Amino acid sequence: MNLRRWLGPSVIVATLALSGAVQPLVDQARAAGPASTPVPKITNLSGGLGAQDSQQVTADQAKGYGPVDQTAPLDFSTQPKTVPHEYVPGRLYNVQVYTKYSYAQLIGQMTYFASSLGVQCTYCHNAQNYAYDTSTKKAARLMAKMVVAANAQYIDPVHKDYPNYAVSGAVGCVTCHRGQPRMAVQYNVVPVQYLDYRYKNQKQAGYTVNSMYGVARSLGVNCLFCHNTADFISLQYYPTNQIAHRMWRMVDAINHEYLPANIKAVTCYTCHQGAKWPTRMVTAALDQTPVDPKAAHPEVHENPGAHLASGAQP
Ligand code: HEC
Ligand code: HEC
Ligand code: HEC
Ligand code: HEC
Q1: Which atom of ligand 2 has the smallest separation from the CA of 113?
Q2: Residue of the CA atom closest to atom 37 of ligand 3
Q3: Both 219 and 190 in a single domain?
Q4: DSSP reduced 3-state for 282
Q5: pTM of whole model > 0.85?
Q6: Which residue ranges are recorded for the region named Disordered (predicted)?
């Protein structure tokens, strides 16, 4: 029997049997870890929100940045040289990401930040000196860099590889935040080093499949949305699978390259929130006009098998 064909389904069955006992596996993985690659934060692989998750969320909330303490004295020794001691409104001093923006455009972006997170300007700024970098503002700047990079490197707003494939839209602050500065982590995604288990061991295969439940639930789809059950191993059947592959790398990059360790992990759910395309996309990286998801996706591909039946390249 072809071992690769056999491995996929058998692992699914084994994982179903094990699904109550996922956390010990995760703990083992954290303790052991692959020799060369650091194991990133994995808060929950179990795929659902149980008591453990609520505790995790509460603990994470305590670590957040929160609104800026307006009474804390300013310490200019920790600041970039461009930050003035005497702040004059209407001028730009310490803009590192939106460098091409005029003052008016920057304020437009700021209004967008505030409404995406459901906060006031003073959540991030010292009201006496908007150029002064607070911890919350620095976190927001990292987020801005992450959004620009994710859109440039991983998001395909017009689906140029699949021109007939009706998904469009870029990621903005609102895609994840949806009116809240902090949110719960749901359905964690295993790091990419566990993803391609084909040439690795059964234990890692278990992580991949556990993660798959979270992936499916994050998108509100079933396994057939991305896989051909006759062949779980080949990825070529549906574009969704290849898109998911690209998304997985994006999630890994977001968590390891852009966000500091004290920020909670981003998962498929953070953007998708139960929908196969995030309902809160924006039209372009720096143009924050929200897209009407219905207008952007006239063709709903409920049955991915249709691509196969028609024999057409979807
Ligand atoms: C979510 C955090 C956040 C919120 C809320 C926010 N800002 Fe900002 N603000 C930033 C960041 C980050 C920068 C720096 C952007 C960069 O480096 O490109 C910035 C920069 C600025 C600057 C330029 C300061 C300078 O260096 O000269 C002004 C002015 C400003 N914000 C005003 C506002 C106003 C007014 C509001 C409310 C409508 C607001 N901000 C809300 C995070 C925020
Ligand atoms: C890919 C998802 C994602 C996107 C897009 C995103 N964020 Fe975040 N952001 C997070 C996560 C996750 C946290 C951590 C939340 C927590 O600790 O509860 C966070 C935290 C923050 C915080 C700190 C909140 C606190 O008080 O601890 C700020 C400020 C912030 N984001 C600003 C922004 C801004 C501004 C944008 C757009 C430029 C943005 N974010 C886009 C996922 C995202
Ligand atoms: C949103 C798309 C998507 C959904 C939904 C999905 N998967 Fe996956 N699946 C992937 C991707 C991407 C991989 C990565 C394969 C790789 O790189 O080896 C994968 C890998 C796998 C593998 C390992 C194949 C191999 O040998 O590499 C198995 C088994 C699997 N998925 C099972 C499932 C099951 C069971 C479900 C339903 C609970 C499911 N998947 C739902 C996208 C998806
Ligand atoms: C930073 C936000 C973000 C995160 C996190 C994210 N996605 Fe996406 N996803 C998008 C956007 C935006 C689109 C539409 C544009 C595109 O395809 O590039 C999309 C589209 C998709 C599609 C195509 C849906 C369809 O109907 O054609 C799949 C499949 C998908 N994502 C899977 C995943 C998986 C799996 C994960 C977790 C590993 C994930 N996404 C995490 C933003 C995100």
Answers
A1: 35
A2: 223
A3: yes
A4: strand
A5: no
A6: 293-314
Distance (angstroms) between ligand 2 centre and the Cα of 126 equals 19
Question: Model confidence over 16-65: pLDDT tens digits?
Answer: 333 333 333 333 333 333 333 333 333 433 333 333 333 344 444 456 78
The residues near 119 (Cβ < 8 Å, ≥ 6 apart) are 67, 181
On whether the CB atoms of residues 270 and 176 are closer than 8 A, the answer is: yes
Q: Is 173 in the same domain as 258?
A: yes
Centre of ligand 4 to C-alpha 243, Å, is 7
Q: CB under 8 Å to 10, separation ≥6 — which residues? A: none
Domain check: are 207 and 273 in the same one? Answer: yes
Number of domains in the chain: 2
Ligand 2 centroid, distance to 143 Cα (angstroms): 6
Residues spanned by the domain of 95: 76-140
pLDDT greater than 60 at residue 129: yes
Q: Which of 96-110, 149-163, 202-216 has the lowest mean pLDDT?
A: 149-163
| Closest C-alpha to ligand 1, atom 36 | 121
Is the Cβ atom of 190 under 6 angstroms away from ligand 3? no
Q: Reduce the DSSP state of residue 209 to 3 states and report it.
A: helix
* Contact call for residues 245 and 239 (beta carbons, < 8 A): no
Ligand 3 centroid from CA 92, angstroms? 48
pLDDT of 25 reads 32
- Same domain? For 167 and 51 the reply is yes
Q: Helix, strand, or coil here: 138?
A: helix
pLDDT at residue 71, rounded to an integer: 94
**Listed residues 116, 140, 164: the one ending a domain:** 140
In this structure, the answer to whether residues 274 and 235 fall within a common structural domain is yes
**Tokens 């609102």 — which residue?**
174
Instruction: Look at residues 140, 163, 186 and tell me which one is the last residue of a structural domain.
Output: 140
303 in the same domain as 190: yes
